[in-house]
Amino acid sequence: MNNSILNQIGNTPLVEAIHINKNPNVKLLLKLEGNNPGGSVKDRPALNMIKSALERGEITKNSKLIEATSGNTGIALAMIAGIYGLNIELVMPENSTRERVQTMKAYGAKVTLTPVSVGIEGSRDYAEAKVKNEGYIMLNQFGNNDNWKAHYNTTGPEIWRDTQGKITHFVSSMGTTGTIMGTSSFLKEKNNNVQIIGVQPTDDSKIPGIRKWPTEYLPKIFNPEKVDRIIDVSETDARIMAKRLAKEEGVFAGMSSGGAVTSALRLIDELNTGVVVAIVCDRGDRYLSSDLFD
């Protein structure tokens, strides 16, 4: 697949925020993961999980794949499974935006919606039951080392290269935690002084794509030692920043990106100098049927 669309995954732009950052001594750079062909940062782990599982012989074209997702991973898996001729069923809470569901179906995936009342945890339980009882195979983004390794091999090196090694702080929302685990591992090897900041919602907030997980659902790939600091962000602040990013910077992104940038700006308020990189994990057009941009 030398010149397939898969070669367009990664090497996303790193652009400077010009208007929202009021500290002239600190650079705020935004890593635009919505520029991946599937529209989000999840193209990276989805490709690595599928490709690695095929290479190891853990899955074949006859395998029945299933995965629980809040959206972006599902879209990426649907796109990449289609290219490799694999069958996949994606399980999501029924309040997922219509754009997400329709995009997964367009790529050829089967989509199953679980009740809102049980959240993404309920989607995960449903998928695990199908693995246990019906012979399905789960790539399991929450416990699959190929998830974080995708970022160790691509996201981290790209950021190091594009900042000429001058990055001082890395800010990322935390869902499966693959992005922050892999990028942290790479950046800390290059310079142990780079500070890694994770972003999670306040207790009363719901922000699609990022979670404060109950202990029993905490992703197995998560290692707290790779995160120097966690900043909690409210749904209200994440929504406001998503709108500001579009209006003031021309960066059209979802609510979890709004949360990451809110946290980056709070951090910048404390700094005298530095180069801060924040992950903008997807595109805003997959939220248009929600009330995010009303």
TrEMBL record:
Enzyme Commission numbers on file: 2.5.1.47
Gene3D superfamilies: 3.40.50.1100
Keyword Cell wall biogenesis/degradation: no
Pathway: Amino-acid biosynthesis; L-cysteine biosynthesis; L-cysteine from L-serine: step 2/2
Sorted UniProt keywords: Amino-acid biosynthesis, Cysteine biosynthesis, Pyridoxal phosphate, Transferase
Modified residues (N6-(pyridoxal phosphate)lysine): K42
SUPFAM superfamilies (UniProt xref): Tryptophan synthase beta subunit-like PLP-dependent enzymes
Entries under PANTHER family matching the protein: CYSTATHIONINE BETA-SYNTHASE
One annotated GO biological process: cysteine biosynthetic process from serine
Reactions the enzyme catalyzes: O-acetyl-L-serine + hydrogen sulfide = L-cysteine + acetate
Source organism of this protein record: Abyssalbus ytuae
UniProt enzyme class: transferase
Residues engaged in binding pyridoxal 5'-phosphate: N72, G175, T176, T177, G178, T179, S256
An annotated Gene Ontology molecular function: cysteine synthase activity
Limits of the Tryptophan synthase beta chain-like PALP domain: 6-282
Transferase as UniProt keyword: yes
Cofactor(s) this protein cannot do without: pyridoxal 5'-phosphate
Family affiliation: Belongs to the cysteine synthase/cystathionine beta-synthase family.
Protein name: Cysteine synthase
Coiled-coil region(s): none
InterPro entries: Cys_synth, Cys_Synth/Cystath_Beta-Synth, CysM, P-phosphate_BS, TrpB-like_PALP, TrpB-like_PALP_sf
